Amino acid sequence: MLKDDSKFTIQKFRDVVPSMNFGYDGYKDMPTWHRVYPAAEFQKDENGNLRMKAFNGLLLLSFRNILKPEDVQLVKKQAAFLPSTLIAVTGADGRSVEILVKFSDEKGELPTDEEHADRLYQSAYRHILPIYQSVIHAEIASQKPSIRSYFLLTLDTQPYYNPQAVALKVDEKLMLQEPTPSIPEAKSDPTDKKEKGMKGSKENIEKMMKYLNEKYDLRYNMVMKYTEYVPKDKEWIGFQAVEPRVQKSLTLEVQLAGINVSIKDVRNFLESNFIKNYNPVEDFLFTCYDNWDGKDHIRALARTVPTNNPHWEDWFYTWFLAMVEQWHNRTGRQYGNSVAPLLISKQGYNKSTFCRRLIPPQLQWGYTDNLILSEKRQVLQAMSQCLLINLDEFNQISAKVQQGFLKNLIQLPNVKYKPPYGSHVQEFPRTASFIATSNMDDILTDPSGNRRFIGIELAGPIDVSVRPNYQQLFAQAEKAIWNGEKTYFDAEETALIMENNRRYQQIDPVMQCFSESFTPTEDENEGTFMTAAAIFSELKAKYGASLEAKSLLSFGRCLKNIDGLKRKRTMKGTEYLVIRRK
After folding, report:
1. What's the domain count of the chain?
2. Which domain holds residue 242?
3. Where in the numbering of this chain does the BT4734-like N-terminal domain appear (predicted)?
4. Which of 84, 154, 368, 444 has the fewest Cβ atoms surrounding its Cβ within 10 A?
């Protein structure tokens, strides 16, 4: 803009910028400030998501912390020196310069689909940024390059604009070779080592910490439980885990810089509370908090799953809230999210795609569908580090695992295991919820554990044509949780779920034999009271070796779960009132 608005919004903002030490997010006008997305034109889809309509081929470079007005003008002149600069304007804070650079692919063309456009944009950033940094000696703003990169609507009475700017051609397949980092020569005298002693050791550790903090942004990922790093001059590559090889590289880098420390010293620093904590889940949910538009996005997402079950939308809503609440790791919970939707259909109905899309792109590391339930430590670790576990092909899980390990696992509020390289068992808060898919419908084997699953048979393929509006989905969930909406199924709902699940229950061969030979009754004159052993004995006599003796151990429990089967306690034990079929 060449002129401020009637409220002098931008000028008032610039007046208070010198006193703002912790960023601009807390400024009162920031939530309603207009953003400029130069890379592309966008439009909203059915869920309110911004989707690319047309790609403009403009790269945004933001240079910041330019304290003097004359230096701001100098940066604009330096940008104007390059023929690919379309626009260079003073940023909204008056201390930055926003530069728009024209570019295209190697053929001089622009992509039409969003995914291709984003790849080209990121490649352009890696290629073009070093060119501009060689001319402009100012700090580049740290941001991950994306066609959704934006700057705040600004005011500049003297903008630079070149309508004849020449587009730089970028080959997205050509990756720039990473330059070898320049390492200062070591300046140390070996004869001084003995004299320095402990004092020297302390000084070297302090130097090492300062060196690494100056070159890298470091943070401890509280969910994944490891330290992450990113070079300050290459923040667009994103944070990476400090795995052993990286740790050794950092140690060598420090040592080659003339700082006499060991790998143990570096490791102690990287694994200490000198590294700031970072929780990616809380960070994401914070961006959603108090931003709900009032529409029911959660049930709308449930409606993309075609089913004849009239309760599905409400059941999914409650489960979704429970999943989000589980992510908060609140203390004092007696149970975790102890119910899992179970999507049932033939292949090709987009069940796995739907499950994966429940997690937003920035948290996709928290989704898994390849858990091996027999490896218990891996399962417990995943429950404390993942956000959603898909029990894909649920029909392949054995009855023994369903009735034992899984039934107990799904209700745990916390998990205990010995972490890799750990010396003892530790307790960790559970973050993961469960969902499941199956191509078969007779899959539930434990009648008493059926309340742990919400069996939903699909009437057709799930609609995955429209991307979920993740900010609104989770903003709605956060609002509901904050307002105290329940995140569990009460007794009435649980009874309804169990009744719904009867159609998906596997019928034990012994119970099939029972149904063919006996029928329950309420009339004591018509029926006979018999113990489980007596009934089983008659079945074995009738069906022979097909009934194993070990089946008797679970036969009594199965009888107790039969609706309408009257029973009483006697000297012989529990007896059941049945009629023999003829």
Report:
1. 4
2. 190-278
3. 35-161
4. 368
399 to 344, 404, 444, 553: CA distances (angstroms): 18, 8, 8, 15
Size of the chain in residues: 582
Task: Report which secondary-structure segment, H or E, holds 438.
Answer: strand 433-438
Q: Under DSSP, is residue 27 helix (H, G, I), strand (E, B) or coil?
A: coil
| Per-residue pLDDT reduced to its tens digit, 210-247 | 999 999 999 999 988 899 999 988 877 888 999 999 99
Is the domain of 396 the same as that of 251? Answer: no
Cβ count within 10 A of residue 315:
20
Residues 436 and 343 sit within 8 Å (Cβ to Cβ): yes
65: left (phi over 0), alpha (psi -120 to 50) or beta: left
Backbone angles phi, psi at 185, to 5 degrees: -65, 145
Of 477, 452, 577, 570, nearest to 521 by C-alpha is 577
CA distance 548 to 540: 8
What percentage of residues in the chain have a pLDDT greater than 90? 53
Give domain status of residue 181, yes or no.
no
pLDDT higher than threshold 70 for residue 545 = no
- Tokens at residue 199, please? 């004092």
Query: Is 184 inside a domain boundary?
Result: no
Q: Residue 423 has what pLDDT? A: 75
Strand partners, 60: 100
Say which range, 155-169, 176-190, 205-219, has the weakest mean pLDDT. Answer: 176-190
Last residue of a domain, one of 278, 301, 331: 278
Model confidence at 181, in pLDDT bands (50, 70, 90)? very low
CA distances from 275 to 221, 233, 250 (A): 10, 19, 15
Residue 261: band (very low, low, confident or very high) from pLDDT cuts 50, 70, 90 = very high
Asked if residue 119 lies in contact with residue 170, where contact means CB atoms within 8 angstroms, the answer is no
Q: How far apart are CA 388 and CA 581, in angstroms?
A: 48
The pLDDT tens digits of the residues spanning 309-343 come to 999 999 999 999 999 999 987 655 667 889 999 99
Long-range contacts of 405-411 (CB under 8 A, 24+ apart): 405/373, 405/376, 406/373, 406/449, 407/446, 407/449, 407/452, 409/379, 409/383, 410/336, 410/338, 410/339, 410/340, 410/434, 410/452, 411/335, 411/336, 411/338, 411/452
Q: Is residue 560 part of a domain?
A: yes
Q: What is the pLDDT of residues 89-98, one digit of tens each?
A: 999 999 999 9
Q: Yes or no: say if 437 and 392 are a contact pair by the CB < 8 Å rule.
A: yes
Hey, what are 7's tokens?
């409220």
Distances (CA, A) of 537 to 237, 545, 577: 70, 12, 16
Q: Are residues 378 and 394 in the same domain?
A: yes
Paired residues of 55 in beta bridges: 40
Could you give the CA distance from residue 45 to residue 467 in angstroms, rounded to a whole number? 8
Calpha distance 147→55 (Å, rounded): 8
Contacts from 421-427 at CB under 8 Å and sequence distance 24+? none
CA-CA-CA-CA torsion sign (516, 520, 524, 529): positive
